[in-house]
Q: What sequence folds into this?
């Protein structure tokens, strides 16, 4: 097995975050129409990379520049194959993945396209990411990124952040896309209406009462029969 | 009266049949047919078109039934029937295929429409060294913190037991809230 998909399913910046979280070691292969990319990952760190022409396998870019160019690809198939052999390769990258992601964002016209599966609006709620950032990261944030980041933990949504900072909403959405791509913030998942979640009591009580049989007390005729049944199911599953 | 049942759902090739096969007391009943679409055949040769069915005997008179739904969305007319009266359900997701996340989100949204039963999400294939971490699966699927998201290896009995027990605890917790009783001491942990 291997982790595989397309960059529309999962962005390269997301893959880099996952590699750091693991941390994972292996080879990431990317295939676009006419080019192939390869990135070597050792204990979550990018250590080498290259882009080749599919036709003649000539090297088109290598090291940091290759990763930055791959980060600009909007669609390609990827496969990540774990292998410890990467640990024997020398480090040939100058910058860490966060710096490379930020650099690629600077070259993009529209950073919101980087993570196409996240929709950012003024109603989007944000939280600081719990992901570990590289301690030695050389990434430097611009003023707008710092201003938004400083408001994330206290503001309920992006609209409030815009009001508090005076940042234009369009610019704020672009900046949030950048912070998402580099893994500094996350979108808060929607709150589930837990009041809408209910146990099918009729089934539970019917079978609970049947299980307790004629020895049913008045109290066990109510919710207790359901609880006794759930206890019995849990005991049985635990004993499997 | 509905039988005591738990539904195992998830997108195509998430591991539902294996999950039931690993824990069932009986040889599971599957209705697998050869895959017809090329892109699906790349993932597996046979697929469940009606349901998978397994049992766990609670005592000599009472069985807990495990029903696996067909994963392909074109068979979603079966989901409503299978979910009716279920105690709860498990949403299985393949941790190595981010391309299935959007389908899993659509499936979860549909199930929330169909049934108000409690559910947990199980991130399957966590024994694969390339598997996406559970925290990433939660983030990408947009699962609120109150819904358990668990690591799972559908081929391992202990892992499947842990997922089922987590669902049962979730059901017990909701049941106590529904019945207006505080505290968890009356339901075994």
A:
């Amino acid at each position: 097995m291997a982790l595989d998909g397309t960059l529309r399913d999962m962005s390269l910046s997301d893959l880099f975050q996952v590699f750091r979280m693991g941390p994972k070691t292996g080879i990431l292969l990317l295939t676009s129409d006419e080019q192939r990319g390869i990135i070597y990952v050792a204990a979550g760190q990018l250590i080498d990379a290259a882009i080749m022409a599919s036709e003649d396998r000539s090297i088109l870019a290598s090291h940091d520049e290759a990763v930055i160019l791959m980060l600009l690809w909007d669609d390609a198939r990827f496969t990540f194959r774990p292998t410890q052999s990467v640990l024997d390769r020398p480090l040939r990258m100058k910058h860490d993945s966060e710096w490379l992601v930020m650099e690629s964002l600077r070259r993009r016209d529209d950073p919101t396209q980087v993570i196409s599966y996240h929709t950012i609006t003024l109603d989007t709620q944000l939280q600081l990411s719990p992901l570990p950032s590289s301690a030695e990261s050389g990434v430097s944030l611009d003023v707008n990124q710092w201003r938004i980041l400083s408001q994330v933990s206290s503001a309920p949504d992006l609209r409030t952040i815009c009001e508090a900072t005076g940042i234009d909403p369009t610019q704020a959405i672009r900046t949030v896309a950048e912070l998402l791509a580099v893994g500094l913030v996350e979108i808060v998942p929607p709150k589930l209406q837990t009041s809408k979640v209910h146990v099918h009591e009729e089934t539970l009580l019917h079978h609970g009462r049947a299980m307790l049989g004629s020895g049913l007390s008045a109290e066990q005729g109510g919710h207790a029969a359901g609880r006794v049944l759930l206890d019995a199911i849990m005991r049985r599953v635990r004993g499997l | 009266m509905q039988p005591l049942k738990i539904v195992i759902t998830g997108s195509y090739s998430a591991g539902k049949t294996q999950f039931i096969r690993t824990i069932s007391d009986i040889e599971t009943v599957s209705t697998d047919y050869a895959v017809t679409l090329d892109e699906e055949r790349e993932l597996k040769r046979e697929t469940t078109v009606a349901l998978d069915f397994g049992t766990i005997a609670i005592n000599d008179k009472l069985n807990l039934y495990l029903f696996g739904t067909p994963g392909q969305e074109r068979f979603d007319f079966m989901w409503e029937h299978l979910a009716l009266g279920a105690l709860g359900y498990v949403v299985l997701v393949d941790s190595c295929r981010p391309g299935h996340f959007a389908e899993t989100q659509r499936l979860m949204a549909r199930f929330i429409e169909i049934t108000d039963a409690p559910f947990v999400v199980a991130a399957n294939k966590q024994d694969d060294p390339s598997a996406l971490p559970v925290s990433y699966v939660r983030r990408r699927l947009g699962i609120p913190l109150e819904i358990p998201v668990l690591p799972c290896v559908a081929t391992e009995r202990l892992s499947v037991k842990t997922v089922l027990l987590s669902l049962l605890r979730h059901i017990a917790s909701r049941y106590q809230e529904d019945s207006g009783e505080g505290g968890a001491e009356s339901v075994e942990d």
